[in-house]
Write a structure and sequence with these properties.
Elements (H helix, E strand, L loop, with lengths): L3 E2 L2 H21 L5 E7 L3 H17 L2 E7 L5 H13 L5 E4 L9 H7 L11 H8 L8 H12 L8 E5 L6 H8 L9 E5 L6 H5 L4 E4 L17 E4 L3 E4 L7 E4 L4 H4 L5 E2 L6 H21 L2
Parallel strand pairs: 1-11, 2-3, 2-4, 5-6, 5-7, 7-8, 8-11
Antiparallel strand pairs: 9-10
Bound molecules: guanine.
Amino acid sequence: MTAGIIDGKAIAAVIKTELKNRVEALAARGAQPGLATVLVGEDSASQVYVGMKQKMCAELGILSVPHNLPADTSQQDILQLVGDLNRDDRVHGILVQLPLPGHIDENKVIEAISPEKDADGFHPVSLGRLVIGMEGFRPCTPAGVQELLVRSGVDLCGKEVVIVGRSNIVGKPLANLLVQKKAGANATVTVAHSRTRDLPSVIRRADVVVAAIGQAEFIRAEWIKPGAVVIDVGTNRVDDPSRKRGYRLTGDVKFDEVAEVASQITPVPGGVGPMTIIMLMTNTVIAAERKAGI
Ligand code: GUN
């Protein structure tokens, strides 16, 4: 293997220490950040993610306000709960875990969250602020990818970034983040997707490739320009009878072969995943600081 590993777990641990100090500063003013989590249904991956977020809250001294609802909860009831959380003074950030069950209009639920408590950064107000470079909550995975690059010394200024995947929660916001006229950005960004013609040749242009398509080991070594930086956002469950739980996690990148070509690469797990969680905590602390007038 030639590529250096971008260790998301270690970078997230550094940010965690920084956040602990900020939580303590809030405590000195009699304030405690609070994060409400809303989980609808029994999706096991979502249960794991929400559980990790709650655990991180506990480790940081952030109040966790969990709401676990049955899969057949009506849209009306979810909107009612979000309204209650908007008015709850203990709660500074509201996270509605996606995807929601099919009978729920996700956009309606996201829009119901107060923009001041939008710790996920998915509200149209937050996304609009992102596009025009205003201060606001940034979606956690894109913010985590940017933070990983900055803290790994990858200068994006003038570089070609190819993001593979155009989701509302990763590809589209990340493109807007990295194209900003700001430190840690200034990249030339291409968003490739399932309809992109000759995807390998588009990816081969990239100095930085971000894989966010949700297909296990989709990105191959022949598509990568030698020396490129590769960020793998994918977390796919692949059947593996040799594991006790029956599956293993793998990214969107065929890690072993791509690591022979790239200069730096994120592993799965231990790359982007820990960064997403710590950026959610960061947004929650920011929301609490704003309310406390810091
Ligand atoms: N589902 C997958 N990623 C995310 C995320 O970052 N936030 C929420 N709320 N749901 C998700």
